[in-house]
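Researcher: Good morning. I'm working through a list of sequences from a screen, and I'd like to move beyond sequence-only analysis. For each chain I'm collecting a predicted structure so we can compare shapes side by side. This is the next one on the list. No need for commentary yet; just the structure.
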Amino acid sequence: MDFDTFIVILLVCLIVGILVAVYVYQDPNTTITEVKEDINNIKEDTNNLLLDANKDLGTPEIKIKKDTVYSDLERRYLFGSPDRNLDLKVLFCPEDNCTLKLIELINNSKISIDCSIYDIDDSSISDALIEKKNKGLQVRLVTDYIQAATKASMIGKLKVADINVIVSPESSSIMHNKFCVFDKKIVWVGSFNFTINDAHRNNNNVLIVNDKEVAELYSNKVNSFFEGVFSQDINPSIQINRIGNGEFYFCPEDNCSTHVLSLINDSNLSIECMFYSFTLDQAGDSIIQKNISKRFIFEKTQESDYSEYSKLKNAGVSVLLDLNPQNMHNKFCIIDNKIVLTGSMNLSVNGTQKNDESLVFIYNEEVARSYLDYFNKYWDLWN
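Model: Good morning. C-alpha cells for this chain:
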C-alpha cells in the first residue's frame, strides 16, 4: 500500500470518527465544546499515526495501527473517555438487602437480562425473571450443571417458564460465575449467589457497574457460554483488560493468577482480604514476603491442610477465622487503601486456573474505603 492510499484511509477514519461524534454519541448532555475537544483529540491521534507511518512505511504495522486507532476512536464515542471513572455502587449482603436490589434491577429492565449464576434457589428472584420473560424481555441464564440438579434449584422452574437456560457440560469444571447484565448497560458482579443463604445468612459483596462497555464485555461472555465454550484454556499471553478505572477478567482464560500475583507484588502499603477459600500457595508466599501491613479473614469451614491460614499465621501475618454461624462467602482484597479486587474467584488453583470465574480490579479510593470500612467492622467483631 502506498503512502497516498494510507492517508486516504486515515482521512476516511477521521471523517467517520467525526460522524460518530455528532450522530452516535450516547450522552445527551455533551456540549459542543466537549465534542470539539474530542474531535481535536482525533486529529492529534491521526497526526501521531501519520508520524509513525512515515517511520514504518511499507511494513504490516501500518494497517494494524490504522485499525487500532479507528477502533479506539469508535469506542471513545460509543462508551466515553478511556480514562473515565466508572459509575459504581457497592453492596454488602445481608446488610444491604441484596435480593431486593437485584429484583429492582430485574423489574426495571426494559430490553434484556443476561445472567451467569452458579446457584439459584430463591423463588422471589426466579419469579421476577419469569415475570420479565412473560412481558417480552429476552432473558438468558447460564448455570452450573451440579447446582442445577439439586432439589432446591429453581432452574427447572425457569426452564418450564421457557426462559433460555443453558447448563455447563458435565465434562467442564465448575461454572462459578455470579453476574448479570441488564439492558446491555448495567452489570451486577460479585460473590453473591441467588440463594436464600447468600441473601440472609452468608457474608457477600456485589459491585453494580453502570457502563455500556463493561456490559458489552459481560454479555459477550454469556454469548460464548451459549456457543458451548466453557473452562477455556489459559492464554499464555498476558493482556490488561482495562476499562475506565477498572480491569475485568474471566478465569481461566485471562490468566487470573498472574494478574492477582502482580497486584500483590506491586502493593507497597497494605493488603486486607476476606476469602472464603484461600489455598493458592504462590499468593501466600508472595504475601509473606511483603513487608507491609497485612490482615486476612478466612472462612472457618475451609481451614484445612491446603489452606494458607496456618502458613500465614506461622509467618506472623495477622489472620483470623470468621464467626458467622453460616459462611463468610466474600472473595475480595483492598490493596494500598485504593484498589479493590473482587468477583466470584477464590484464591485457589481451581478458582484461578480451572473454574469459569469473574475477576475485577477497581482503582477508586472511595470504593476502597467502603470495602475497608466493611472489613474493619468484621475484623473488630470477630477478633
